[in-house]
Write a structure and sequence with these properties.
CATH architecture of the largest domain: Alpha-Beta Complex
Distance between the termini: 80 Å
Strand order of the largest sheet: 3-8-4-5-6-7
Radius of gyration: 23 Å
Number of strands: 8
Number of domains: 2
Order of helices and strands: HHHEEHHEEEEEHEH
Largest sheet: 6 strands, antiparallel
Number of helices: 7
Strand content: 15-25%
Structural class: alpha+beta
Helix content: 40-55%
CATH superfamily of the largest domain: endopeptidase domain like (from Nostoc punctiforme)
Length: 184
């Protein structure tokens, strides 16, 4: 009777050990997965929750441009403005050609309120003007990447008083615009 009990206990302990070993292997594989490491890295560096569903190409592109100085009319890493930065993202990350000016880009979107924005959507601002003067790309968690005239390419929060004050609308590129690009 005691032998049966000890044998049963030993089998139970071995089963538990095997399950723990499998979960450690899965966790190790998860930690060593390059996409998961990239997600963790961008989450920490950019202060944005990057997960498995996120577009890592988008975050990698933005990371490579962070700190690029602002230059009106610029479109290189020596200096870039907000619409050129957004255009470059759409060209390189989404394989979509958009217009060069923030007001013109707004004509290519389906306007959205702030609470319906998804990663990759656009955010538009009317800064001390009646017309759109600034654009960025939404990343999630109220954060967006843009070329700030005072700080260059940065990630900011839509809830910061400055951006909250001047936020106009969000927008998602219209399917008809994407369809036109496919036909060309």
């Amino acid at each position: 009777m005691i032998k049966k009990f000890l044998f049963s206990t030993l089998i139970a302990l071995c089963s538990i050990s095997a399950v723990n070993a499998q979960s450690k292997v899965k966790e190790t594989n998860k930690l060593e997965d390059p996409d998961n490491l990239a997600s963790q890295y961008f989450s920490q560096v950019m202060g944005v929750a990057v997960d498995a569903t996120s577009n890592l190409k988008l975050y990698k592109f933005i990371y490579e441009w962070i700190g690029t100085p602002y230059r009106f009319g610029g479109n290189t890493q020596k200096g870039i403005d907000c619409s050129a930065f957004t255009k470059a993202i759409y060209d390189k990350v989404f394989n979509t050609t958009i217009l060069r000016n923030s007001r013109d880009i707004f004509s290519m979107v389906n306007p959205l309120p702030k609470d319906e924005l998804k990663e990759g959507d656009l955010v538009f601002f009317k800064i001390k003007s009646r017309s759109i003067t600034h654009i960025g790309i939404y990343l999630g968690d109220n954060r967006f990447a843009h070329a700030s005239s005072s700080r260059g390419v940065v990630i900011s929060n839509l809830n910061e008083p400055y951006y909250s004050r001047y936020f106009y609308k969000g927008g998602r590129i219209l399917d008809s615009v994407k369809d036109e690009l496919i036909e060309e």
